[in-house]
Amino acid sequence: ALRYDERPVHEHVIVDGSTGTLREPIMHETFVDLDDMLVKMNSYSTLAAKRLRQDGKSAGLAKAVLRALWAFVRTYFLRAGFLDGREGFMLAVATAEGTYYRYAKLSLLRTR
Predict the structure, then answer these.
(1) What is d(CA 14, CA 17) in angstroms, rounded to the nearest whole number?
(2) What residues are paired with 2 via a beta bridge?
């Protein structure tokens, strides 16, 4: 049996039983264009901020900026995004942006 966990973002598949190996890779395109990515980033960062708050986490502006910088460095340099040219740079920026929004929104939840 296959089921998903209850997370609203980055849900996981839970398998009861054994699994096999696919012969071909699964192509997972998470968005169709930049507009779609921005809509999804806004929605996911809001959901993630609420989840962090439920987990008792807090953040301020400094944490939002530092987490975003780390996300860029990790994506572009440590995960070799620079090898993917323009697309690698754009992905690193988008990852940093989404991370910033997540923690900025968490910071704003604290004031409500």
Answers:
(1) 9
(2) 15
109 Cβ neighbours under 8 A, 6+ residues apart: 49, 50, 53
Q: What does pTM read for this prediction?
A: 0.82
Cβ neighbours of 36 (radius 10 Å): 12
Tell me how far apart the alpha carbons of residues 65 and 60 are, in angstroms, rounded to a whole number.
9
- The tens digit of pLDDT for each residue in 67-103 reads 999 999 999 999 999 999 999 999 999 999 999 999 9
Question: DSSP states of 38-90 as a string?
Answer: HHHHHHHHHHHHHHHHHTT----HHHHHHHHHHHHHIIIIIT-GGGGHHHHHH
Residue 30 CA to residue 22 CA, distance in Å, equals 20
State the pLDDT at residue 86. Answer: 96
